[in-house]
């Protein structure tokens, strides 16, 4: 008996080490294969988010293909409308960008002159530390416009592939549900798999919808505040605030920096220029700590440390798209683990099950799942 336990612990340790190795290798695989994995991940999340909308269109009597296509069209319409609100005023302000940059540089130079004593102290400290006076060699790199021109064809191709995969995944949702429920010999495992998929779909769709409404409210308030303060292109700032608010922590920080730079570059004084940024910080503080937690509730509450880890992890792998996808991916995994059980990594080494707290349902819940999924 003791020998069997030792063998079980050894096998558990080997499996855990193998899984850890795969986890460490995963970022490099996803980064190198981003052309494949990024559209696939985005399509899966869009399918999870848009499937309830397609189901509503199907209940109205529309064919499955038409309801899937209409759900995707609605999403594209919302995205294009949001981009239009931002890009159209931004293009109008593009001619003023050199003057804004010059004014910001001038005020930065004035501040540097006022604090010139810090530069003198830094120079003297470098001499005391034995600075040899070596200078860094900067290599010429492609300009921003050249990089955009090079990246545009691949980006358009990835976007097209993403939406095509999303359409076909949404269109196949009914067949997938029926396959899970009726085409398997073990009805109990089919019900558990179908219930897990439904839980992930409902939670992610509800989260994205609720957060989208909250961020739209933030955008409206920012636009009205910018209009009241006399800031140019208030609709652009409102739309930008709504979109950046989908990225935890980094998005509001970037919005604050943009408002501060634009205000300093356009206002008469630095103090007046920082007023819009200060108002936005106050608004975000109230929204993030009072409004959003009270509306979302405990069901969507996630550990801030896990949010930061997911944000840094997927931003490192996929950049800005990874930052946008990080919270939906984390929410999907959280919903899945809440259903099948939390990983028990420490106990797994000592021979315990890998997942604990598995959710089980009674016969009435299984019948409800069968009627819901098989519809």
Structure description:
- With 375 residues, this protein is an all-alpha fold.
- It has one domain.
- The chain has helices at residues 2-32, 34-59, 64-93, 97-114, 116-128, 144-171, 173-182, 187-229, 234-244, 250-266, 270-273, 275-296, 304-318, 320-340, 345-349, 363-373, and strands at residues 342-343, 355-356.
- Strands 1-2 form a two-stranded antiparallel ribbon.
- It starts with a helix and ends with a helix.
- 21% of the residues are buried.
- The model is unreliable at 358-375 (pLDDT under 50).
Task: List its salient traits.
2 strands, 375 residues, 81% helix, 1% strand, two-stranded antiparallel ribbon
Helix content: over 70%
Strand content: under 5%
Tally of DSSP helical segments: 16
How is the biggest beta sheet arranged?
2 strands, antiparallel
């Amino acid at each position: 008996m003791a020998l069997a336990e030792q063998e079980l612990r050894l096998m558990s340790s080997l499996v855990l080490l193998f899984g850890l190795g795969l986890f460490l290798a995963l970022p490099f695989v996803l980064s190198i294969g981003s052309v494949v994995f990024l559209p696939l991940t985005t399509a899966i999340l869009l399918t999870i988010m848009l499937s309830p909308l397609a189901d509503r269109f199907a209940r109205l009597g529309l064919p499955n293909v038409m309801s899937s296509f209409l759900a995707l069209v609605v999403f594209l319409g919302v995205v294009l409308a949001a981009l239009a609100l931002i890009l159209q005023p931004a293009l109008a302000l593009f001619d003023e960008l050199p003057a804004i940059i010059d004014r910001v540089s001038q005020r930065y130079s004035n501040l540097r002159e006022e604090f010139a004593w810090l530069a003198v102290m830094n120079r003297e400290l470098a001499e005391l530390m034995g600075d040899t006076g070596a200078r860094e060699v900067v290599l010429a790199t492609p300009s921003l416009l050249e990089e955009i021109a090079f990246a545009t064809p691949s980006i358009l191709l990835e976007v097209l592939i993403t939406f095509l995969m999303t359409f076909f995944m949404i269109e196949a949702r009914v067949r997938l549900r029926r396959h899970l429920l009726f085409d398997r010999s073990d009805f109990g495992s089919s019900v558990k798999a179908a219930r897990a998929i439904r839980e992930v779909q409902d939670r992610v769709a509800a989260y994205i919808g609720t957060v989208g409404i909250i961020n739209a409210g933030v955008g409206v308030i920012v636009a009205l505040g910018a209009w009241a303060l006399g800031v140019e292109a208030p609709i652009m700032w409102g739309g930008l605030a709504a979109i950046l608010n989908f990225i935890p922590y980094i998005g509001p920080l970037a919005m604050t920096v943009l408002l501060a730079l634009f205000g300093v570059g356009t206002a008469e004084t630095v103090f007046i220029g920082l007023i819009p940024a200060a108002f936005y910080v106050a608004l975000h503080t109230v929204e993030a700590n009072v409004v959003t937690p009270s509306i979302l509730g405990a069901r969507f509450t996630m550990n801030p440390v896990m949010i930061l880890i997911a944000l840094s992890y997927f931003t490192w792998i996929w950049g800005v798209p990874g930052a946008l996808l990080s919270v939906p991916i984390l929410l999907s995994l959280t919903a899945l683990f809440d259903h099948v059980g939390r990983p028990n990594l420490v106990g797994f080494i000592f021979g315990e099950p890998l997942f604990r707290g598995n959710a089980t349902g009674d016969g009435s819940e299984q019948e409800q799942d069968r009627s819901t999924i098989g519809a």
